[in-house]
Write a structure and sequence with these properties.
Blueprint lengths: L15 H4 L3 E2 L1 E6 L5 E6 L2 E6 L2 E7 L11 H9 L1 E6 L5 H6 L10 H5 L3 E3 L6 E3 L4 E12 L6 E12 L4 E2 L2 E2 L7 E3 L5 E3 L12
Antiparallel strand pairs: 1-13, 2-3, 2-6, 4-5, 5-10, 6-9, 7-8, 9-10, 11-12, 13-14
Length: 201
C-alpha cells in the first residue's frame, strides 16, 4: 500500500500514529498565571539535546476556552515553565484519566487522583510519585503546519529521579516500566531491555 497524506489513506483509522511508535509519553504539568495547576499527557514527545538537556513536545487540537490551543500550552505561554513527568505502568490509569477534556479551571491532578509535589527550579507542581521528572524552562514555541499544531521546546533546569529506580548508579527502567503510546488506542510497556556496544571507528 502507498498513499499521499494529502489525498487520505482510505483506512478506517489513521495509520501514521502506528508507524511512528512506540512513542514516549510526556505527562506535562503546568501552572497558569492564576495559580491553577494542569496535568495532561502528550505522546508527540522526545529529548532533542543533552548539553544542555532539552526536550520537545507537540501540542495539537484546541479547547473552546483556550483561544486556539490547549491548557498546557496556554499555561506555558503565561509562565514560561513546565514539567515533564515520566509515566510508569502503575500510573497508566491516572495518566489516561488526566487526558479528559475539562474546563480550564479544573485541576487534573485532583480529577485523576494524582498526588502533587513541588518543583525545585520552577514555580510548578510535578507528579509526586513519578519515577522521573524534568523541570523545564520554555525556549521557544514553533508554529507547525495545520491550524492548531505547535512544537514546544524547553531546556531542563532540574531532574528528579526516584531512588528505588536507581541501580548501581544507573536509571533502571525495568524498575518502573515506562508506558509508551502506539497507534489507535494501543499502548506498550517496557519490561525488558538489551544492550549493544557501538562499533569503534
Amino acid at each position: 500500500m502507498f498513499y499521499r497524506p494529502a489525498d487520505g489513506h482510505g483506512l478506517p483509522h489513521n495509520p501514521f500514529h502506528a508507524v511512528v511508535s512506540p512513542r514516549p509519553i510526556a505527562w506535562i504539568s503546568t501552572r497558569g498565571a492564576d495559580g491553577r495547576d494542569n496535568l495532561a499527557p502528550y505522546s508527540f514527545f522526545n529529548a532533542v539535546a543533552s548539553e544542555p538537556p532539552q526536550v520537545v513536545f507537540g501540542s495539537s487540537n484546541t479547547k473552546a476556552d483556550r483561544d486556539g490551543t490547549k491548557d498546557s500550552l496556554g499555561n506555558i505561554r503565561e509562565t514560561g515553565v513546565f514539567c515533564v513527568n515520566i509515566v510508569e505502568f502503575a500510573a497508566r490509569e491516572a495518566m489516561n484519566a488526566s487526558s479528559a477534556s475539562h474546563p480550564r479551571e479544573v485541576d487534573e491532578f485532583e480529577a485523576a487522583g494524582v498526588a502533587k509535589a513541588a518543583c525545585e527550579t520552577i514555580p510548578c507542581a510535578r507528579v509526586g510519585a513519578a519515577p522521573a521528572a524534568l523541570e523545564c524552562r520554555l525556549t521557544r514555541v514553533v508554529r507547525l503546519a495545520g491550524a492548531t499544531n505547535y512544537a514546544v521546546f524547553g531546556v531542563v533546569t532540574g531532574v528528579h529521579l526516584r531512588d528505588d529506580c536507581l541501580v548501581d548508579g544507573r536509571l533502571d527502567v525495568t524498575r518502573y516500566q515506562p508506558v509508551a503510546r502506539l497507534g489507535y488506542r494501543d499502548y506498550a510497556v517496557v519490561r525488558e531491555v538489551f544492550e549493544m556496544i557501538r562499533p569503534k571507528a
